[in-house]
Amino acid sequence: MGGLFSNPFVLALATLVGTIVGAGIFGLPYVVAKAGVVLGVFYLALLGAVVMLLHLMFGEIALRTHAKHRLIGYASLYLGGWAKKLVTLSTVVGIGGALLAYTILGGDFLYIALGSFVPFSNFAFAIAFWFVLSLFILWGIQTIAKMELIFNIALFLVVGAIFFFAFPHIQTRNFILSDFSYVFLPYGVVLFAYLGLSAIPETAELFKHSTEKRQLDNLIVWSSIIAGTLYLVFTLFVVGVSGAATSQDALTGLIPFLGQKVAVLGAVFGLVAIAASFLVLGNYLKNSFRYDYHLPYGAAAALTIFPPILLFMIGLREFILVIGLVGALVAVLEGSVIALIHRVVKEKGDREPEYSLRIPRFVLFAVMALLLLGAVFEVSFR
After folding, report:
1. Left, alpha or beta for 140 (phi > 0: left; psi -120 to 50: alpha)?
2. 327 φ/ψ sector (left φ>0, alpha ψ -120 to 50, else beta)
3. CA pseudo-torsion sign 182, 183, 188, 191
4. pLDDT digits 0-9 by tens, 179-224
5. H helices, E strands: number in the chain
6. CB contact at 8 A, 238 and 37
């Protein structure tokens, strides 16, 4: 067992899967309950393949570059200042939107866990969740990032508990095949659930030797398969139990069928997982403002913690709406930049990669067109 946990491939796989699987998993049952199983599986398969391709391209970009960068750095290096600005916009929108989504979900989970004892509404709990975690970001608590894997294990425990308790309550009549009035609803939510681009460079750096780096492409493929399988099974279990009553946070809708205790258990573990993600992403964005744009500490912290709560206060409080828009917009911005970098890095890269993709030009443009059209439809039909 000790050898298993010291295996670089296993550790890297756990890191990448743990980064991909996050709060987005809780939004999948709702959109599939609305759109139907056929459309849900279609989106999970198609967009899972698209995101896997983007991850593979990003992995090759990292392997073709000696210097250590993140997407902003690669964009600046290979495409120029306009691409750096575009990725910066994507980073701010993506992380800010994720912090807003975590605030919404944190309020829902706190209400499930403590609503019977504390006379607060979801709104008040969300404010409390944001306030406490924002203090940690303001104080600069960095060590939480090292615990990310443990917190993601908590999220997997939520899923496992729901599997265990939900199985006897699944009813086939709760599944609908398709409802085309919700045909675009799953798009952005599925993308939000799958995207794990930020973890690709970190994962590549876990491999110290060239023989280990040759496993990066297999690692990305397996992480996509594991995440997709987990999403599908979790979604089918939740929808199979709650059917049309499936809630946007997945757990609230299970209470009438599985009881308050099961939902509370899920909410507690879910809170731990999303709190960890909130802190890691918040610190990342704060430090991006500090180190990439040389803002003072106070200004960087303020630009990180206040926009999400201001958006929440003015009425942007629908979890599905937020993750759908964020997923679609981040995917088209970052996916297009990665596709363009991938074409350039073949010639301008300064390192021989451990794997090299041969992707026809029409496939790259098809991916970019799909992401662009998806973003347009996502915004238009909201």
Report:
1. left
2. alpha
3. positive
4. 999 999 999 999 999 988 877 877 777 677 777 778 888 989 999 9
5. 17, 0
6. no
